[in-house]
Specification:
The chain has 322 residues and is mainly α. It has one domain: NCX, central ion-binding region (A middle domain of Talin 1, Up-down Bundle). It is 82% helix and 3% strand. It is built from 13 helices and 4 strands. A two-stranded antiparallel ribbon has the order 1-4. A two-stranded antiparallel sheet has the order 2-3. Helix 3 packs across helix 8, helix 4 packs antiparallel against helix 13 and helix 5 runs antiparallel to helix 6. The radius of gyration is 19 Å and the shape is globular. The chain starts with a helix and ends with a helix.
């Protein structure tokens, strides 16, 4: 096939993820809309995992293809996209994101540390199974920390029970919605396989690290569910639901990253690209924490600052490999 054909297939796979994500989010919205203050917790755990189906698809297919660096780059890049592109975009669309009553300062700091952990693991370029296990344990500890006043099995059991009732047993969400979620997830998985294959082709063609494709391109493509939630939440005046999803999705990236060396074994990453990623993500998370601490909100102006950081990161990465 020609280069144009490969590019077209890559674009079509991203388009499939974009369209099917809309169907999935449309059904999942019915769950989130039922909640107000508890909505953050539901969005964090339930929406966070469901909107990570694209990242899970890329991770599984990357393991099958024997190229875990593609998924590793995707997961770290996705967290950068969430905090330096999508959350600021939501702030611009909604006017601001009110963080008061959404999450406590202590919980936010712990969550941000878990989100930053994969970049620390990637810094030396050698990802080990014991480091993967540590990331999985950190995610479990985060769940416990956020819900330490309630038993974990009770929290998860009650949440999943509500989800099941909302998706299957209520008039607002029918078996058709459930079918959208299952069918859409399956097709997104197939699209993820295509994305991995085409990413390998282009990284070989351009002689750049495989992780770079995940870091720069797939990171945006696999975050289309979060982009859809940003627009819908801004229009529906529910940015708290969106913020819970984003924090949960970024934390889920750390969990998925942890499974890569556990299933694949040790693998190597390009240290240059991930050193910059660590600095950008650390700065982005620090700025976000400062903004949240000072005003309990993220304003439009603060969103512009984070967006500028992402544009700088993207430009530097592209120039570095030209």
């Amino acid at each position: 096939m020609t280069i144009f054909s490969h590019a077209l297939i890559f674009a079509l796979a991203l388009g499939v993820i974009w369209i099917l994500s809309g169907f999935i989010i449309g059904a999942v919205d019915r769950v989130a809309d039922r909640y107000h203050k508890p909505g953050f917790a539901v969005a964090f755990f339930v929406l966070g995992i469901l909107t990570s189906i694209s990242e899970i698809s890329v991770a599984v297919n990357a393991l099958f293809e024997g190229v875990p660096p593609v998924s590793a780059g995707n997961l770290i890049g996705a967290s950068i996209v969430i905090f330096c592109l999508i959350i600021p975009l939501l702030a611009l669309l909604a006017g601001k994101i009110d963080l008061d009553h959404t999450i406590t300062w202590g919980n936010l700091v712990v969550a941000l540390c878990v989100i930053a952990a994969p970049t620390l693991v990637a810094l030396d370029g050698d990802v080990l199974p014991e480091e993967g296990l540590l990331l999985v344990l950190l995610y479990i500890a985060l769940i416990y920390y956020i819900h330490k006043k309630r038993p974990f099995d009770e929290t998860v059991g009650n949440t999943m029970s509500d989800v099941r009732k909302e998706l299957i047993q209520t008039r607002r969400a029918t078996a058709v919605d459930f079918g959208y979620i299952i069918g859409g997830a399956f097709l997104i998985f197939l699209a993820g396989n295509i994305l991995v294959d085409e990413s390998i082709f282009f990284t070989n063609l351009l002689s750049v690290p495989a992780s770079l494709a995940g870091l720069l391109v797939l990171a945006i493509g696999t975050n289309t569910p979060e982009l859809i939630i940003a627009v819908r939440s801004a229009l529906g005046r529910r940015p708290d639901i969106a913020f819970g999803d984003y924090l949960g999705s970024a934390a889920a990236n750390s969990l998925i990253f942890g499974f890569l060396p556990l299933f694949n074994g040790p693998f190597l990453l390009d240290t240059g690209a991930f050193a910059i990623s660590f600095l950008v993500l650390a700065l982005g998370l620090s700025l976000f924490a400062i903004f949240a601490r000072t005003k309990n909100e993220l304003s439009r102006g603060e969103g512009v600052i984070l967006l500028s950081l992402y544009v700088s990161f993207l430009s530097f990465q592209i120039l570095m490999f030209l």
